[in-house]
Amino acid sequence: MNMKVAIIDDDSIFQFTTKVKFEKLGLASEVLIFTDGEEILDYIKITEVEDLPSILLLDINMPIVDGWDFLELYKEVEEEKRNRMEIHMLSSSINPEDVKRAESNEFVMDYITKPIRDEDLTKIFHD
Amino acid sequence: MYSLKSTKGKRDIWQKILSAFSKKSKNYKRDPRYRDIVENLNQLVSVKDANGVYQLVNQAMCDLAGLEEAEIIGKNDLELGLFLNPDQIMSADAKVFETGRKSHIPIEPFTDQYGTLYWFQTKKIPLKDKQGKTIQLLIISTDITRKIEMEQVLQKSEFRYKSIFQNNYSGIIVINQSLDIVNKNRAFNKLVCKTEENLVVSDLKKYVSTQDSKDLKDLMAGLVTRNYEYFDLNLELVSGEDIRVDTICFVRGLYDKSGIFTEAVVTFQDITTEVKNRNALEESEKRFRIIVENATEALLLLDYDTMGYLDVNKKAEELFGYTREELGQLKLGELSPLIQTDGSSSIKLSKEYMDRAVGGENVVYEWVVRHKDNRTIPCEVRLVRLPYDGSNIIRTSVIDITERKKAEHMINLEKQKLENTNVRLLSMNDKLEVQTKQLKEFAYISSHNLRSPAGNIRALLDFYNNEPSKENFNILLEKLDVVSIDLLDTINDLADVVKIKNETYEDVTSINLAKLIEEAKGSLSQEVKDKQAVIHIELNGISSIKASKTYMDSIILNLLSNALRYAHDKRNPNIEFVANQDKKYFTLSVTDNGLGIDLKKHGEKVFGLRKTFHRNKDSRGIGLFITRAQVEAMEGDISIESEPNVGTIFTIRLPQRVIIK
Does the beta-carbon distance from B452 to A92 stay under 8 Å? Predict the structure, then answer.
């Protein structure tokens, strides 16, 4: 399995448990951790297209640049790079406004409510 | 011509003429003296025989007939055709012959050759022979045409006057000194008897009152002595039960040639209708006067030309406190204060209204009037121009509307109250909506913030159960420790928020601002010292405010700790507290020179729960959320101005009127 995954979440426990899940399920070749939107954006800027992760797990609630801010700024990213990445939103928020907002965003594939289950991850990779 | 001066002289001459005629005509002819006399007489003199044939005529007769003596002699009247009625004349002549007695024909017409009508008075005298037999007629005619004409004129004139007298609509009587009616006309009959028939008693005293007849007598005495020749007086003619006639009578004295009073002519003019009309008018005026006097509104008649008051009613006296006489002395504007409630000049404005009224407009307006004792009264004024010939009279009607104004004021107050209530309800509704939204948000936030740690615990347990090694167990414990702290923090934060949401703050007291800020500084003294912060306080004389002590404590502490926490790493914190107030609001701003924040990016989330914008370890994103909740609980608001790397200003604004919920 040669697939790079990026987790963008400030919650260290979530980072840890999700990373372990990927390793256990053998779904990803590499799991990158970012604690907010700004960090991942900086990474995308300096990284070649072929080295970019193909899946982004994006949390909403983060300091500095949160999930929504990231999606705004993501518009500025070159189309070539954007085409390489799939964004899945992850949040413990069950606020229907958040769900609606995520689903209506052109870059978001789907919205997954935390806690994340094994099936959710399997589904991401198989689709 | 002979002048016949006396009756005796006349008789003598006639005697001679007669004797001359009675003699034989030759004697007559022989005596030329008589002939001359007869020829030159003005009378027509002729002698006829028994057959009516003229034997002799004088010059006057010839002149009148326009014929020579010879043309007349030997012809009778029928043949001559001088008279209109020759048959009558000849038969009258025959009668004298027959009876032998002279006859007198008082009036006899005669037409001359030009058709002019003459009137004669004729005497026919029989001339007898010695045996006493009538042999001839001596006819003497006197021209009385002028006399007849005069008589006719006189008759005509008298008839005319009589007709005027009788047919005059005015009653006319002639009375003597003792008021006996000597003569009267039909109109007078009608006046006192209601009929033209002559039922009038010939004593004027019977038709007038005792007083009137006394007055009349006194006045008549003046006529008699000719102190004056006429007078007039009002006289009520009374007759019977139901006849009462008001008259003006005009009395003129009549005097004879020697100036002695004979009688007086009295002309009556029936003025009953006029008196009735006048009385009716007076009645009507009286009625209107009563209506006007008792009107509930003050009425004033204003003469537009002099701007003075002509007449006022009782209510006007009451309203303005002036008597009728005093009001009569006042001019327009003197019953108003100098200026009206809207600040316009009373005199100027009321003149404008009067101009409009004189132009025919019915003007209605509200007006403040001034009572004599200087108090002002709100009134409603109505102006109407009255149709008076030649002058501009304006009827001014004034109603005191104090009560109405009061009622209006009350209604307005009630309305204002209702509006205020409505505004309050609306604002409460707005607040409730905001609160509902906040509660909803809070519910999502709570669930989100509690779900995260719960989810983490689940994920950690999954991780351990999947590979329950000793090493993993130690990791589990270590991670659970972090989660439990996070969970506890979250629960505490939520509890804080719930506390504000539910709290009814009742500790509104007078708070010493300077002391409060000092206390906050004291609580954060370690940070202030570590970061070498400088804190300025500028309270602009506001020593204390009325607010919730608990909230103000928390708000100031939070803002100060915020300013210290997000200080710039390149400079020492410089923090400034500035207080201000006006009538409506108290404001307190906290300015720092810290990191600042990009409001374009984060503006809407600054005051959100669990929103952090810096990578500080101790930023939990709870302070500003609570601060806002507390400010809003006191019906205030909080705003932020900021620029990254320059600094931030937080301003809280509290209404001066703090409502205790």
Answer: yes
* Number of domains making up chain A: 1
- Asked if A11 and B460 come within 8 Å (Cβ–Cβ), the reply is no
A49 shares contact with chain B (CB less than 8 Å): no
Question: Which tokens go with B300?
Answer: 């004033």
Q: Report the DSSP pairing between strands B44-49 and A86-91.
A: unpaired
Nearest chain B Cα distance for residue A17, angstroms: 6
For residue A37, the chain B residue with the least C-alpha distance is B613
Q: Which domain holds residue A91?
A: 4-126
Q: What is the CATH number of the domain that holds A115?
A: 3.40.50.2300
- Judged by phi (left if over 0) then psi (alpha if -120 to 50, else beta), residue B153 lies in alpha
Q: Using CB atoms, pick whichever of A12, A24, A98 lies closest to residue B466.
A: A24
Q: Looking at the predicted complex, does its ipTM rise above 0.90?
A: no
What residues of B are in contact with residue A61 (Cβ under 8 Å)?
Answer: 448, 610
Q: Identify the three-state secondary structure at position B254.
A: strand
pLDDT of residue B4: 39
**Which among B456, B462, B619 has the least Cβ separation from residue A14?**
B456
- pLDDT of B147: 83
Q: How far is the first Cα of chain B from the last one, in angstroms, to the nearest whole number?
A: 151
Which of A13, A114, A116 is opposite residue B483, by nearest beta carbon? A13
CB spacing of B455 vs A14 below 8 angstroms: yes
pLDDT of residue B20: 56
Cβ-Cβ contacts under 8 Å, A25 against chain B: none
Q: Is the pLDDT of residue A26 over 50?
A: yes
Higher pLDDT, A1 or A8: A8
Q: What is the pLDDT, as a whole number, of residue B504?
A: 57
Q: Identify all chain A residues contacting B610, using CB atoms and an 8 Å cutoff.
A: 61
Residue B72 in tokens: 């007349």
Query: Which residues are within 8 A (CB) of B82 and not within 5 positions of it... i.e. 6 or more apart?
Result: B65, B110, B111
Of A21, A61, A94, the CB nearest to B610: A61
Per-residue model confidence as pLDDT tens digits over B74-98: 888 888 877 777 888 888 888 888 8
Cβ burial, residue B36 (10 Å; 0-12/13-18/19+): exposed
**Please, what is the average pLDDT of chain A?**
88
Residue A93: CB atoms within 10 A of its CB come to 25
Give yes or no for A51 touching B (CB within 8 A).
no
pLDDT value of residue B367 = 92
> What is the per-residue pLDDT for B87?
83
Please measure the distance between the N-terminal and C-terminal CA atoms of chain A and give it in whole angstroms: 15
Residue B555 Cα, gap to closest chain A Cα (Å): 23
Tell me if B619 and A61 make a contact (CB, 8 A cut-off). no
Residues 6+ apart with CB under 8 A from B68: B62
A24–B456 CB contact, under 8 Å: no
pLDDT for position B556: 92
Strands B508-512 and A86-91: unpaired
Q: Average pLDDT of each block of 10 consecutive residues along chain B (661 residues)?
A: 43 57 51 71 85 86 83 86 79 87 82 76 85 85 84 77 74 88 84 73 85 89 90 86 84 88 88 83 83 86 87 90 90 88 89 90 92 92 82 88 89 91 87 78 78 87 89 91 86 77 68 90 88 91 85 89 88 93 90 88 70 56 79 86 92 74 36
- Enumerate residues 6+ apart whose C-beta is below 8 A from B180: B202, B203, B204
Measured between beta carbons, which residues in chain B are less than 8 angstroms from residue A64?
A: 612-615
Assess contact for A43 and A65: CB atoms under 8 A: no
Where does B516-633 show beta strands of DSSP type E? 534-538, 544-548, 574-581, 585-592
Token pair recorded at residue A70: 């990231």
* CB contact at 8 A, A69 and A37: yes
Six-digit token pair at B572?
């020492």
pTM for the structure as a whole: 0.43
